[in-house]
Amino acid sequence: MHILYTFLIMRVSYDDIRDLKSIVTALARLVDEASIKFGTEGVELIAIDRAHISLVKLSIPKDAFKEYDVQEDFNFGFNTQYFLKILSTSKRKESITFESSDPSSISIEISGGLNRVYSIRNLDVSPPEIPELNLQYDVSATANSSGFKKAIDEISAVSDVTIIKADENGLLLKGKSESGVEVELSKDMGGLQEIELSKPTESSYSSDYLSDILVLTKLSGFIKLSFSEQKPLQIQFNMESGGNVTYLLAPQMG
């Protein structure tokens, strides 16, 4: 009699599937395929959008997971739209488990309600090579997530470009159009938690790209914004679990 033994390469469980659902929702708007690296110390992902004007970087330490058994680096390449279809069935308080005993495929289990198990082919997706960025910014602000998202929603409805101005009073967001939509975020009004700046600054960014990424405001109550004139806007979403997503968006010139 022959006994077949199956050895797990990796097994990782995360408690709140809604975090991952928000992240993949944002990714699906930017890229067709992506690769999650399950490393020995945690999870990483880097993706550049189709037009190469924005970048998403995800980092979640292993301590943020309910279970994390990864003996050596494991890359999970996936189609973002397909993965999103799987996650779209998830409900609040459900957890997700990734497991693999074969590098060519991965098993995904969603549990907590009606348990479902999906077997997915592991795609060969090469993560983009990104040079080390050391950007110095004139403005750094911590803003209310829902307030910032609402402001961008208002502006993107009438303008393709969002202008962000910063001074000692706070942030002023407005559209580059004849509509005259302006939204002020200040500490007095509650839209800003804090702001630091070396000088008053103004820069312009794509309204559509901002709208696409701001689904990630579901990750936390506050976001950190950093920018300078004609430099990429950096938005950091700090997750309650301890992970974070950093988003870089190139400025609109002219």
UniProtKB/TrEMBL annotation:
Organism: Acidianus manzaensis
GO biological process per UniProt: leading strand elongation; regulation of DNA replication
Domain Proliferating cell nuclear antigen PCNA C-terminal per the UniProt entry, residue ranges: 134-251
Subunit structure: Homotrimer. The subunits circularize to form a toroid; DNA passes through its center. Replication factor C (RFC) is required to load the toroid on the DNA.
InterPro entries recorded: DNA_clamp_sf, Pr_cel_nuc_antig, Pr_cel_nuc_antig_C, Pr_cel_nuc_antig_CS, Pr_cel_nuc_antig_N
MF terms (GO), sorted A to Z: DNA binding; DNA polymerase processivity factor activity
Family annotation (PANTHER family): PROLIFERATING CELL NUCLEAR ANTIGEN
Gene name per UniProt: pcn
Function text: Sliding clamp subunit. Responsible for tethering the catalytic subunit of DNA polymerase to DNA during high-speed replication.
Domain of life of the organism encoding this protein: Archaea
The UniProt record lists the keyword DNA-binding: yes
Full protein name: DNA polymerase sliding clamp
Gene3D superfamilies assigned to the protein according to its UniProt record, in alphabetical order: 3.70.10.10
